[in-house]
Amino acid sequence: MHNPCFITVARPHDIIAELTHTTSPAGAFERVRFKENTHVVRIRELEIESALLLKQILLPLDAHILMSPVTSQNTPNAKTDVFIFASFWQMQELITCCHRASRPALQRLAVELHATLSSYDLSGRDSLTLRGHTFIWGVRTYVVTTLDLTPYPFNENGGTAIHDLVATALAQARHAAHAGADLIEICCEPVHPGDPALPPAQEQSSIVPIIETLIRHLSLPIAINSSRTATVAAALAAGADMVHAPRGLRTPDGAWNTPLADLVATHGVPLALIYGGAAAGEHLDAAGTDNAIFDSIIGELQSSIAYAQAHNIDRAQLLVDPGIGPVNRLPRNRALLRQLNELRGLGLPIMVNIAYESFMEESPTLRSNHDQARTATTTTLAIQYGADLVRTSHVEGAIQAARIADTVVRPA
To answer: Where does 68-163 show beta strands of DSSP type E?
Structure first.
């Protein structure tokens, strides 16, 4: 028995005393890319060969392991204590690999690790609780249904009668809730570049009755997607549970949106930072190679995270979104999706817009009744590349795909 256990630490230096038990080589700890909310698991008296195999398994998962220097010695039957630095998703992947290993010692360790993971207090995991619904990151993928509050639905419905808009929003939300959606997002931002937004007064007068009606009839949490501070304030006052910031706490001219940050901090609600560097035009398509662009996205999200924390927004309340959407050209969105897992380095849950229009060209062979199938495809790819939440208006296809993909990507 190796008695694996979780060690709760808030900062890297808090674990230095624990690491002295492994007598790790000088500088080994400094090489660990310690992320906030990283989980640390200690395993005692592990055979050297098993420890080295664990290291090989964890390396491609971008997780880390520290062990005693004795691992470099040819000592018969040598054992070592090890520390694993990993997320829950990485731990689950490790357990799966150990189960499949031919070495019996690793199979036994997988059983112990699974028991430890299963019995670990859920309050110790990375999670959010909104309106009685708990989102535990790494356990499964959550589906966000988007309700569009822009001139488009107004025009489609033949006018701006608020009772018609409220009824339409409630019907769509009920349908999504019945299908299994986890969160309702009311989107006030234009979907395509150059599309008009509602006038501020109309937007704010519309958002309140919609949210109040949804709360009366449904139990799902509600997020407001807007960069207008007054709109967000109205939504939060009406009972919204979360804020999605489509420009990552920046204004359209690139300045920091301090009033919005202060508003979120005052209400203490979760905040999704959506990369908005492309809001002013073709920034992503003009920025250079895919790697350079993704580096700029990570850098901007890091700045937004730091700005949020500097304005008293709890990091545990933050999520990130790389800004995939119609504002970018199709090849760029596809490249961003392939690199999605690199956002894991930020140590925060990842949300992705999986609208198939962002990845696929229109084709006469793909009729409108194939929307759910196309959404299922983009959902599966997003989960494979690391998404924790997916945003879509086609919830059935996303939910069915997520349930299947999670059995492979996030095995129990």
So the answer is: 79-86, 127-130, 133-136, 142-148
